[in-house]
């Protein structure tokens, strides 16, 4: 129980009144000079795409690319007009399923490599084994 200065319970004090509390915190220091600053609005379609007619979004499931900061639930931005160079993250269609992996060209062949040590690389040994569907050019995530 909290007491006022005279030793009387606070709720029993004749001077006791309820005070309103702000619902949000207030600054105790200097206000930020950027508080009133507003930039031009951003069109996310323009920001995320260079080729709108060949760009798609796909929702990620699984954890094979967590090392590249691509996590389950994220949306990846895929551009089908780009060539998949070695080292790029791609959306591939392999063995009847789509998968996101890092495309790597090595002296002994092409590989799709995960960014999680729990998973193995996939060597693309046959031309008809699958195809690179597009190149990942962005990630949209909720925090």
Q: Could you list some keywords that capture this structure?
A:
Umud Fragment, subunit A; disordered N terminus; mainly beta; Peptidase S24/S26A/S26B/S26C domain-containing protein; 1 helix
Description:
It is a single chain. The protein has 143 residues and is mainly beta. The protein has a domain at 50-140: Umud Fragment, subunit A (Ribbon). The chain contains 1 helix and 7 strands. The protein has one helix spanning 44-48; strands at 55-59, 75-79, 89-94, 97-106, 109-113, 122-124, 130-140. The chain has a 7-stranded antiparallel β-sheet, with no helix packed on it. A hairpin with a 2-residue loop joins β4 and β5. Residues 1-13 have low confidence and may be disordered.
SSE layout and pairings?
Layout: H1 44-48, E1 55-59, E2 75-79, E3 89-94, E4 97-106, E5 109-113, E6 122-124, E7 130-140
The chain-level mean pLDDT equals 81
Rg calc: 28 Å
β-strand amount: 25-35%
SS summary, helix count = 1
Contiguous low-pLDDT stretches (5 residues minimum) are 1-13
Q: First CA to last CA: what distance?
A: 40 Å
The biggest beta sheet is recorded as: 7 strands, antiparallel
The H-level CATH homologous superfamily of the domain at 50-140, spelled out, is Umud Fragment, subunit A
The top level CATH class name of the domain at 50-140:
Mainly Beta
Total beta strands: 7
Structural class: mainly beta
What is the CATH T-level topology of the domain at 50-140?
Umud Fragment, subunit A
For the biggest β-sheet, the strand order reads: 1-2-7-3-4-5-6
CATH architecture annotation name of the domain at 50-140: Ribbon
Q: Report the order of strands and helices.
A: HEEEEEEE
Describe the global form: elongated
Helix content: under 10%
